Amino acid sequence: MLILLLLAAAYTVSMTFVDESKNFTVEKEIAYPVEKVFPQFSNLQNFTRWNTFFSDNPDLSIQYFSPYEGKGSSLSYKDRKDNDRFGDFFLRYENPLQTIRYQLFEGGKNTPYLIDVKFKPENNKTRVIWFIHTPKQPLLKRSLNLLTEDYLADNIGKSMKNLYLLLGNKVDKEEQRQNLKFDSLMVENQDSQLLLGINVTTKNAKDALFKNIVMSHNKVKNYVTMDLGKRDDEYGEPVLITDADNFKDKEVSYFYGIPLSKREGVSDNSFSFRTLNGSKNYVLYYRGNYAGRIKSIQQLLLKAKRDTMRTGDLQQTFLEEPDTENQTVMKLSLPVFK
Which domains does the chain have, with CATH numbers? Predict the structure, then answer.
């Protein structure tokens, strides 16, 4: 008992030398312009998707309150398995593209974390500076401040990596749209892809094929977004895989899938995974009536024949969701090899 009392006394005395609150700065650079970065901080629904404080816990339930973006937006969170983990998060101040101030109240505490974030654009990059002020701790809990800085700095580092990957999906898609060259035959090296989709056989009669593709698209997309809970930047553009010259047949068999980053458990047996291996492709970007794609496909086949290349299955990537037959936008890719 005497030893325990001495240790407790020593601990209490040592805590008098530890600050009751902590101030520290974390600085990170992200390779995207501030116009792309800032909305990921000012919209709390965006913020919780990449910030590890929220995104790393699958049991965290989050409720957002309007306005959902900018000054005055807020959220409440609660762990469904840990009743002691809950709190509120507020966006108190915003100077667009320059600064943001948050407050985080953990549990039933009345004193919040104060989090100021500054954004400094540098060419097409953005320097993001986090200023953290931790809440005051009572004397016997001040040892927590010795760990807080490393813990939060590590979380900020992981969060900024998540943000980089998320923006990569968004920005890459936008840049691809801006740089499209339609009806110009090109050669591309394609990386491997993992697709989740369905196998379909349907009639190749007028309008029937495209209507069937629309049904397949809706079925696969609904499963990916609703059943698997994927957001729009967590999957790629849908791909239809079929024989390159089956447009002459009365029936068409195809696989329609959506790219995912990894395999997941699938409860519906009508869905399956298919791997597209990396390949050298002859590519044409096409815009117009879906039936009009045949001329572009023939152009790809003719190029392969002239180059004495063997061909794989044709890949039709829908750059805009198949909806209206007269307004399709797609990338036609024909794998070729000796």
Answer: 18-178 (3.30.530.20), 186-337 (3.20.80.10)
